[in-house]
Amino acid sequence: MTVLDFGLLVVAGFFAGLIGFVTGLASLVSYPALLAAGLPPVSANVTNTVALVAAGVGATASSSAELAKDGKQLVRYAIYSALGGTTGAILLLTTPDGSFEVIVPFLVAMAAVALLLQPNIRKLSGDKQFPTLYPLALFAVAIYGGYFGAGAGVIFLALALICTADTFWRASVLKSFFLGVANLIAAIIFSFSGQVNWLAALALAIGCFVGGACGPPTVKVISPIVLRVGVGILGLGLAGWLGYQAFGR
């Protein structure tokens, strides 16, 4: 890897960390950047997961006061995330390439539509909350996050805004923390796989940490409606791209 490649990955990491917190679409920046740096797909995938841990650390450091309000519940939900991340990482290393490719575009598309229609969905449900569904769905999202993760943030935001009374700001904070836990566990497993490009991971992680730390104050000053609609539209775009990757070639 050249010095230029390293520097470009740092820059890509910054935008991945920032965009990841704001929209939940970090991998849309970081994964293609790793491919452009010459990494093969599986190596790029696991290296991306390792590097994105830094984005979660940066975002958590900037929003620790908000996270501290949850106490024991935060720990309980983090365990669901850790178990999901473990399952996803094991699936990635033991199943044939492309096992989830067929269903992933539909998952991301449904989450994007759910975000766009979130106010209507909440009205139809009578503004009820779904505390039983939330941890189970979190576990499922963490599995996907540990396996590949592109769009996992969009799916989590849809889940949180529909199942709980959380604001977009709070859902974003929790998204970064819980998916960060899933990424951390998956990263530990991947570190023994021999597939991680550690130099690329370091470059991306440096940028991800700074970008993740800039995420919370950025979200605070943007209208929640603009964020929700923007993430929904970007999520549909991601679903279309993933669908093309799965069916169009």
In short:
By secondary structure, the chain is an all-alpha fold. The protein has helices spanning 3-23, 27-36, 41-62, 64-67, 72-94, 104-116, 118-124, 133-147, 152-163, 168-190, 198-220, 224-247.
Describe, in plain words, how this protein is organized in 3D.
- This protein is mainly alpha-helical and 249 residues long.
- The protein has twelve helices and no strands.
- The chain has helices at residues 3-23, 27-36, 41-62, 64-67, 72-94, 104-116, 118-124, 133-147, 152-163, 168-190, 198-220, 224-247.
- Helix 1 (3-23) runs antiparallel to helix 2 (27-36) and helix 5 (72-94) crosses helix 10.
- The longest helix is centred in the last third of the chain and has 24 residues, at 224-247.
- The two termini are 30 Å apart.
